[in-house]
Each structure stands twice: as C-alpha cells, then as structure tokens.
Amino acid sequence: MSRQAKVSRKTGETDVHVELNIDGAGKFDIKTGIGFLDHMLELFTRHGLFDIRVACTGDLHVDAHHSVEDIAITLGEAFKQAAGDKQGVVRYGSAYIPMDETLVRCALDLSGRPYFVPNLGELRREVVGGLPTEMVEHFFRSLSTHFPMNLHIDVIRGHDTHHIVEGVFKSVTRALRTALTVDPRQQGVPSTKGVL
What we know:
Blueprint: E1 4-10, E2 14-21, E3 28-31, H1 35-48, E4 51-58, H2 65-83, E5 92-99, E6 102-109, E7 115-119, E8 127-128, E9 131-132, H3 134-146, E10 150-157, H4 161-180
Parallel strand pairs: 3-4, 7-10
Antiparallel strand pairs: 1-2, 2-4, 5-6, 6-10, 8-9
C-alpha cells in the first residue's frame, strides 16, 4: 500500500504545494520563505521519517500568518489523503522530547475527530527566525483540524524559546510516526466503530 499524497492550495494570499510519503526516509525539500519554519519542518521530516516537500509563495510582506496557516492546512490534508482509511495503524502515539533545559510531551490519537489541547507555556520571544511564536499553536491547531486527530502538547518546562518550539515540533512528529506505524497484528481499523 502506497501512503503518499500531493496536495496544492492556492488563495489570494498564498500558493502552497506539499508532497508527502508517510513511509519515507526523512528526506526533505522545504521552501516556505520563513527561515525558522523551514528548519522546524526539516526536523519534523527527519525525526518522523516522512519524506516531505513543501513549496510556499506567500504574502510575507503583509505577515507570516497566511503562509504558516496555509502550509499547516495543506500538510494536514496531505497526511489525511496519504493515511487513507488508516487500516492497520497503531492509532495512538506519544513522545517526550528533552532539549537542554526544555522538556516537551505530546500525546495524540488519530481518531478522525479534531480536538487540540495546547499548553505551550511562556514563549519569551515574539519572533524566532521570522516565525511569530504565536503561530506555533496556530500551526498545530490547523494541522490537527485538517488531519483530524486529538492532539495534546505540553511544555513541561523550559525557558529558551528556540528549544521549546523545536521540542514541540519534534515531539509531535515522533508521536505521529508511532501512531501511523502499521502493526502487522492489527486487523483492519483499530476501533470498535470500524472507522477512524
């Protein structure tokens, strides 16, 4: 079974193209126009062992908001398409990620029902490498809405904004990698409802 997708989204504010292979090797080609977001999506790809290409042309002269949101929407749609009916997946995933003084926990359920619970603590810097830090929460809210999942992110401790944001991206991708793993013992969809 091939778990791949290509999704494009074009609006009056952005033009986004995403290619995804869930069963990849961590290869990336990321061009968002926002340096720190490129870095976060590159490590998201590498630590999730997904292959991801992202190309975005957005109205960055206005703000980064439209680009960040539309990239998350398009990436979420790509995961939704590539995962298909989720036959045989583990479904649940969790990860703790330490980065120096920072510790981040993510737990998620590929339930098909979007619910996002963020606890990102205090992000002391408003912008890191061109990425407004308020957009980190917005990115994962959009991702978890368009690839419908129950997503909990908790920054347990940390004060370096770079470390916190990086820990968040790494914890989510590690949890997602686990949840999307195909379990050879799992017959069909892991739900008594028969659908996810």
